[in-house]
Target: CRP-like protein Clp
Amino acid sequence: MSSPRLGASLPNPAATDDGNEMRFCSTCAFSAACLDQGYDKAALGDLHCLVEHVGPYHEGDVIFREGDPFTAIAAVRAGTVKTYVIDNHGDEHVLGFFLPGEVIGLNAIHPARYPCNAVAMDTVALCRFSFPQMALLATRMPGLQHQLFRLLSEDIGKAALVAGDYSADERVSAFLLTVSRRLAARGLSGRRFHLSMTRSDIGNYLRLAPETVSRVLRRLQNDGILAVERRELEILDLDLLTALAASVLRE
Amino acid sequence: MSSPRLGASLPNPAATDDGNEMRFCSTCAFSAACLDQGYDKAALGDLHCLVEHVGPYHEGDVIFREGDPFTAIAAVRAGTVKTYVIDNHGDEHVLGFFLPGEVIGLNAIHPARYPCNAVAMDTVALCRFSFPQMALLATRMPGLQHQLFRLLSEDIGKAALVAGDYSADERVSAFLLTVSRRLAARGLSGRRFHLSMTRSDIGNYLRLAPETVSRVLRRLQNDGILAVERRELEILDLDLLTALAASVLRE
DNA sequence: CGCGATTTTGATACTCATCAACGGAAGTGG
DNA sequence: CCACTTCCGTTGATGAGTATCAAAATCGCG
Model:
């Protein structure tokens, strides 16, 4: 049994997990952010009322499709989500990968439709937030409004990794390093992790041929920076990797 | 006499233009958007109270600098603004060009500091909006909040032009076409216009060598698509230009 | 096992960056 | 008015980096 598209609101809250986990869901970006700032319990209650835990989605499941009417954004609780578009030649362009704690759907607010497709790369669980309800609530909770502004502002300019005219080595290094850091930021291991995407997906995202990704990984392994075995990856020399990625990440 | 940085709020409203123009400033994105949606006059008054017309800035004037504390966003009323960063090798990376009607500073909300530099490419006039005041007002004006969300959401994914692995011809064509359309959207001529930036700036933005930009322009001229004379540009065959840009712009 | 997808490896081609040199426009100072 | 300078743009020759094509190796899975 697969979960419904994100666009479809769940008919009743019975489909959510038990309320206890929901109340203390540590991967829910908004709840956490608001808790951090010590907002009043009533407002938090309101916020939790518009959250739905959805999933699990399984590998290949569609979370939303380009053109679907925009109804909700979602924080990834577990798993990896890939967003992409199909160009007029029928070729896929990967726009991004979203790891636990990250928010999908923010770029859909303006056209009021999702401007890309989102699929699960593995087993994915989401926190779904009805956007109209959240925007309404934000008018009563300046802190929530600010968190939304923050999330949106953060995402502007996130394309630096794929935008610059960097070498293949720099791009792949920067990609691996950001994945590592994003995982670590959610309490997962940033030193040793599993890549849920293929070489083709990585290459597509970084605008490199999959063969090039493969060759770069081999180089990094030969240089003792990484240990790579299929999709299992271990960072052996973080300093060297960081140095390689430095120009991309502006550090 | 040059205008102050954007970060510095003007001490008194006497520095703004006459109130009459301000009230009907057609290039002010927010005022226009709110007027479109028929909000009440009182709220509009509030909105106009937090607008300051600043400028003129002259070519090379700094509008804000990377690291400046974030206090305001601004809509370009006239002229062209370039945003850029300096990497750790001392090289400039152009992030974008902002034409009349477009909003600068949106990516500064999160870190609460401007993450890049902004300079005037020619004579520039701005509408400055104090962001704290505007965010506060947005809690009372859902329409304004929505416009802000819309602006922010729009900017996410605007990097497609520089992100894709497109050919130099496609990139330059897409760049010229978007400039043309953005000018036309503000009532300016999209068929014949002046490029306020150098070949180096364009190349830097598109991640191409300035020589390559020059060569592409010559090719497009030889093919009868453009007439180029220094920075004066005329589009002769819009269909061909659009076709060249199609894959970049996903049309 | 045997099929398909993924990954790797090798050989070649092509786009674009780089280097170098020149031409031209605008501005400066005598 | 005329050198002189400087920045910008153009043009040509060369080379580096990566895509592409082709094929073998490996893994997952029915």
Q: What stands out?
A: Residues 13-155 of chain A form a domain with the Jelly Rolls fold (CATH 2.60.120.10). Residues 10-24 of chain A have pLDDT under 50 and may be disordered.
